[in-house]
Design a protein that fits this description.
The protein contains three helices and six strands. The protein is an alpha+beta fold. It has one domain: hypothetical protein PF0899 fold (2-Layer Sandwich), CATH 3.30.2320.80. The chain is elongated, with a radius of gyration of 18 Å. The mean pLDDT is 89. The structure holds zinc ion. Zinc ion binds next to loops. The site of zinc ion (ZN) has 8 residues, from loops.
């Protein structure tokens, strides 16, 4: 239920942002998800739909941008994009140490791609000039 809790927090954040802008409806939610969140975009979109039911974000489009994970290797000093073995399913990869793409060492620290962030939302705001 990894995706569901993520979807709930996305809905909460979107609703809060909408409320503080006096929006009446959320149309689009733009998010970025890091590789190391291991969130599956299709699952996330599906759970977003459920989590947003009966809120002003119901029916909003979730636009997902994937962000590459970043590693720092303490053996060779490599810092950069990780390379997750595509053969490892995400459920297992989350527990596996990330290997340095340069020297193959497992003494790596994840320095990026662990989070998902809402970059912005598009919402309907009633004309307040009346
Ligand atoms: Zn290395």
């Amino acid at each position: 239920m990894h995706e569901f809790s993520a979807a709930c927090s996305i809905v909460d954040t979107a609703l809060e942002a909408a409320k503080s802008n006096n929006a009446i409806k959320v149309n689009v939610v733009n998010i970025e998800i890091g590789e190391f969140t291991f969130l599956i975009p299709e699952q996330l979109a599906f759970n977003f739909e459920i989590a947003s039911k009966n809120t002003i974000a119901e029916g909003a489009e979730l636009r997902i941008k994937n962000i590459k994970g970043k590693l720092l290797c303490s053996d060779c000093g490599f810092e950069g994009e990780s390379r997750v073995d595509p053969d490892i399913p995400p459920q297992i990869a989350v527990f596996a140490p990330m290997k340095c793409p340069k020297c193959g060492s497992s003494s790596t620290t994840i320095t990026g791609g662990k989070d998902f962030i809402i970059t912005n939302i598009e919402a309907e705001i009633p004309d307040s000039t009346i």
